[in-house]
Structure formats: C-alpha cells, structure tokens
C-alpha cells in the first residue's frame, strides 16, 4: 500500500482511538514513524548491477546469494523511498583515450538508470527538482535522482556536464580513488598533484553552480573540499563519508573541516564502508584470491548470465575459504552519533555506499535501514530530526543549487 495512504490510516486510527471516552493517544510506533518519512540514501551504486546480465531490480535478492544490496522488495522492507543512483566510472588514464572510454561507460550507466525507470514506470520515477521527492513518495513510487561519482568521464569538455544535466544529473563529485584532471583525491598513493582543485576543477565548480548541480566532496582530498567550500556559491555535500574523530582514514573528515562544511550550509551523509569505519585485519590470501578474480572479470556487462553466475560462485568460494571480517552496526553508529554531535541533525544524512562496498554486520542491505531510525530515536532524536536526516537536508541543498542557477537567468 502506498506510504501516504498508510500514514493517513495510521493517523485516523490514532484519532479515532483518542476520541473514545477515557482513551489516551499514543505516539506512532518506531516502525510507523520510519514508514511515514521520506527515506533517501545519497549514494546508491546499484546502477553497476543494472548493466549486469541476469540482475533484475524488481525481484528479491540476498547478499549471501549474489552480493547485491538493493532491489525493490528490500527497499519496501527497509522503507527506502529511493535517493541518488550513481553514475560511477573507475579512474583510468588522464588521456584523451581514457576520457572517451570513461565517457562511454558513464553514458551506458545513465542509460541503464533511465531504462530501469522506463521499464518499471509503476515503481520508479525520475526526480530532477527538489519538490519531486515527496511527490513521488506520495505516489508510492521510488525516487530516482542521478549523481556522478568521479567527474573523470567529462574529460576536459565541461559542456558534457550540461549533457548529463539534461539526462537528469543533479550531483557531481570531482574525483574518486586517484587524482584526475579536476583535482586531488584523498587516497591517491602518489599524494597530491594540485594542492586541491586544478584550474579545470575550479571551472567545474563554476559550471555545476550555473546548472544547479550539487557538488559532492566525498573522495576528495581535504584541500580540494576546502577549495569547493570556498568557491561554490551553494553548499557542498559529502554523499558518503565518515569522521576522523572515530577512525583516522584519509576518506574521513576531521571535526574542524566538518564545522567549516556545516558553517557553509553543507551536509555530510554517513558511509557504511567497513574499512573506513575502523581498522580491519588484513588477509593477504583473501586479497590475492580477489585480485585473481578481478583479473578474470573484464567487462561484466558483455558476459552471459551463466558467466556472471560462475564469477559469483568463485566469489562465494573465496568468502568461504577466507571469510571477510566486517565492521559492526555499532562501529557505524559511532561515526553517525559523533557526526550528529558536531554537525547537528540539520547537516547529517545517510549515504551507506550500497552496492559499492558498504554494509556492516546487522545492516548488510537496505532492508535493515529501520535499525538507524530505531537507534536515533533511542538516542533522543525527534521525528523532525529524522525527517531532516532521511531526506530534508539533501533536498534543501538541491533547492539552494536550483535557486542559485535560476538567479543567474534573471
């Protein structure tokens, strides 16, 4: 049943009960509260699976079976209304040939997102405006905003950003694991190259502002994030990041920089990628086995369903012989609660990195998202706080980005 209908019925039931003689009203259960919210995650890497032969977003999967974390049945179970579906491209050579290959990969990803929406129009709806999210949720459909993790596919032609904007892009992160033409990554083994944004990266910020695209600082080096905060005319998001106060990792942010982000109006969405949450024991044999498996993979989109199934069977065998050691839900909440203490509920959200390496014990797929609501309620956060955390904060950033772009046309 559609969420808005369920919420209305719940309210009517409570009102009817309260009107009886001697009856007292009771607050909604935590389950009903979670269902009543517009629940979004700002970093869904699931488009990588949409191009994978044999994967059907409409059917129920399990992480143990095929390692996926998002599908419609599990979204329904976890009360996930949708969020930002990611165009991700691995960082390749910063060359014209590299740019062309990455551009083609990115176009296939965005086309896969559009195909998902078009093929299941009763279930999904493309969102391009800030107000779309709540309207789509009220219709009982799943919200599909589009983001780009790693702007590398744009090459040196920023007019491509406008092309992707016309295809629905509303969030962009300049870098990923390594430095590229736009600036410095937090995790490049060779260190920094530009000391923040490159000259082209500064033009990217300006172009994104002009179009009304939110800038994403996850994966960026601290100096690049500082540059974006200073240069951007609208607030910056960290779509999937953690805190150095809990675990000192380059992908995380320290309290001083987090306060700068908050002071500028920005928002941080908390990541559930285990190796960014705590120090995990190294297993050289597991790493070697996975390295060999990845070398076999090639272009998974060009494989047959049987070939993909064979690769997944090999992965299961590796996991059985060399089990993964995962961070726990408490490790995740340690980051979440510290970030809330520093940034406040008006500047915090959820971006768990589903289908991109995220997931912790007790929360390995989106079906488990109500655990976050339950824990935050137990910590004393209010219904309004939860509404902000789950959706309002990122929608505010979308509105500010849109407003600035519109102001340039007046």
Keywords:
410 residues, alpha/beta, TIM Barrel, 6-stranded parallel sheet, 3-stranded parallel sheet, 17 helices, 9 strands, 47% helix, disordered N terminus, Dipeptidase, signal
Molecular structure report:
The chain is an alpha/beta fold and 410 residues long. It folds into two domains: 36 residues, no CATH class; 324 residues, Metal-dependent hydrolases (TIM Barrel). It is built from 17 helices and nine strands. The strands form two sheets. Strands 1, 2, 3, 4, 5 and 6 form a six-stranded parallel β-sheet that branches. Strands 7-8-9 form a three-stranded parallel β-sheet, with helices on both faces. The longest helix has 25 residues. The chain is globular.
Question: What topology does this entry show?
Answer:
Layout: H1 3-19, H2 30-36, E1 40-44, H3 47-50, H4 63-66, H5 72-78, E2 82-88, H6 96-119, E3 124-126, H7 132-138, E4 142-149, H8 159-166, E5 169-173, H9 199-211, E6 214-215, H10 222-231, E7 237-241, H11 255-263, E8 267-270, H12 274-277, H13 284-297, H14 305-321, H15 329-343, E9 348-350, H16 370-378, H17 383-407
Parallel strand pairs: 1-2, 2-4, 3-4, 4-5, 5-6, 7-8, 8-9
Helix pairs in contact: 13-14
Distance between the termini: 43 Å
Number of domains: 2
Helix content: 40-55%
- From the spread of the alpha carbons, the general shape counts as globular
CATH C-level name of the largest domain: Alpha Beta
Number of helical segments with 4 or more residues: 17
Query: In the CATH hierarchy, what is the superfamily of the largest domain?
Result: Metal-dependent hydrolases
Q: Do you know the CATH architecture of the largest domain?
A: Alpha-Beta Barrel
- For the residues shown, what is the average pLDDT? 92
Strand proportion, as a percent range, falls in 5-15%
Q: How big is the Rg? A: 21 Å
Secondary structure class reads alpha/beta
Number of strands: 9
Which segments are poorly predicted (pLDDT under 50) over 5 or more consecutive residues? Answer: 1-24
CATH topology of the largest domain: TIM Barrel
Q: N-to-C SSE series? A: HHEHHHEHEHEHEHEHEHEHHHHEHH
Biggest sheet statistics: 6 strands, parallel
């Amino acid at each position: 049943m559609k969420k808005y209908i369920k919420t209305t019925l719940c309210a009517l039931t409570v009102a009817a009960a309260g009107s009886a003689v001697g009856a007292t009203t009771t607050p909604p259960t935590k389950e009903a509260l979670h269902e009543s919210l517009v629940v979004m995650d700002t970093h869904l890497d699931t488009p990588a699976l949409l191009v994978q032969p044999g994967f059907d977003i409409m059917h129920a999967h399990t992480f143990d079976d095929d390692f996926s974390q998002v599908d419609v049945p599990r979204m329904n179970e976890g009360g996930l209304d949708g969020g930002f579906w990611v165009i991700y491209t691995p960082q390749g050579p910063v060359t014209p040939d590299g740019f062309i290959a990455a551009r083609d990969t990115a176009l296939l990803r965005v086309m896969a997102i559009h195909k998902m929406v078009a093929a299941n129009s009763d279930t999904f709806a493309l969102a391009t405006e800030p107000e779309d999210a709540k309207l789509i949720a009220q219709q009982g459909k799943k919200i599909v905003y589009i983001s780009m993790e790693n702007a590398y596919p744009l090459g040196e032609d920023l007019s491509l950003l406008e092309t992707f904007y016309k295809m629905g892009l509303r969030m962009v992160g300049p870098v990923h694991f390594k430095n590229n033409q736009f600036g410095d990554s937090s995790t490049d083994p060779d260190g920094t190259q530009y000391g923040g944004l490159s000259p082209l990266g500064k033009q990217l910020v300006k172009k994104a502002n002009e179009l009304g695209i939110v800038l994403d600082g996850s994966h960026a080096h601290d100096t690049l994030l500082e540059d974006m905060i200073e240069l951007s005319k609208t607030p910056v998001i960290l779509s999937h990041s953690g805190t150095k106060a809990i675990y000192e990792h380059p992908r995380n942010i320290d309290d001083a920089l987090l306060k700068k982000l908050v002071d500028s109006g920005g928002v941080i969405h908390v990541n559930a990628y285990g190796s960014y949450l705590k120090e995990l024991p190294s297993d050289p044999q597991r790493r070697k086995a996975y390295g060999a498996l990845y070398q076999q993979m090639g272009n998974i989109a060009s494989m047959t369903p049987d070939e993909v199934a064979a690769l997944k069977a090999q992965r299961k065998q590796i996991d059985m012989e060399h089990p993964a050691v995962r961070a726990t839900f408490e490790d995740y909440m340690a980051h979440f609660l510290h970030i809330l203490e520093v940034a406040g509920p008006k500047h915090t959200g959820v971006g768990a990195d589903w289908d991109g390496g995220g997931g912790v014990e007790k929360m390995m797929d989106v079906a488990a998202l109500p655990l976050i609501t339950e824990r935050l309620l137990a910590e004393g956060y209010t219904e309004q706080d939860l509404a902000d955390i789950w959706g309002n904060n990122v929608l505010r950033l979308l509105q500010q980005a849109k407003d600035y772009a519109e102001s340039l046309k007046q």
